Amino acid sequence: MWEPSQYLQLKRRHFLQSSACGLGSIALQQLLSEESVAETSTVNAVDPLAVKTPHFKPRAKNVIFIFMSGGPSQMDLFDPKPKLQKLHGQPVPESFLKGINDSLIKSTAQVMASPRTFQKYGQSGMEFSDLLPHLGSCADDLCMIRTVHTDVSNHHPAQMLM
């Protein structure tokens, strides 16, 4: 974990690499907008950074993007893993390690389940851990996206691939 004094020494390059997808996502957006056939040019010659009209009428009123780099694990907040609960404390099955070449995973590794307890909330049945007890009250007003996946086990490169 970083100490507050270390944030003062944060370099621009590290900031851009660590912020979600880094500078690549900013550049990709610009490249895609230049090549888009459907987009009509609405660039203001006086102020190119002025707000542009969207391609489609937005349906969402607000979007909250949570990228918790350094925050609690999503497995301890939003992502219950029942199979991990069953296998807790047992040696990691061979099938889990198949194709993974990681020097940090030893043959004596054991499965570790989340220490948190999960509960279903709202009509949607969205599950949250006991670390977020009040978030459950608005579960039916939230949209949980669980489609992001990577095969990389090393944390920082995996973040970049997400």
Task: Write the topology of this structure.
Elements: H1 4-7, H2 12-18, H3 23-35, H4 74-77, H5 82-87, H6 94-97, E1 118-121, E2 126-129, H7 155-161
Antiparallel strand pairs: 1-2
Model description:
The protein has about 160 residues and is mainly alpha-helical. It has a domain at about 1-40. The chain has helices at about 5, 10-20, 25-35, 75, 80-85, 95, 155-160, and strands at about 120, 125-130. A two-stranded antiparallel ribbon has the order 1-2. It is extended and about 65 Å long. The model has no long low-confidence stretch (mean pLDDT about 75).
Key features of this structure:
two-stranded antiparallel ribbon, mainly alpha, extended, single chain, 162 residues
Gross geometry: extended
- Total count of strands: 2
Low-confidence parts: none
* Spatial order of the strands forming the largest sheet: 1-2
Radius of gyration: 21 Å
Q: Average pLDDT value?
A: 77
Q: Alpha-carbon distance between the termini?
A: 21 Å
Helix proportion: 25-40%
The main pleated sheet reads as: 2 strands, antiparallel
Q: Specify the structural class.
A: mainly alpha
SSE arrangement, N to C: HHHHHHEEH
Quick recap:
By secondary structure, the chain is mainly alpha-helical. Helices cover 28% and strands 5% of the residues.
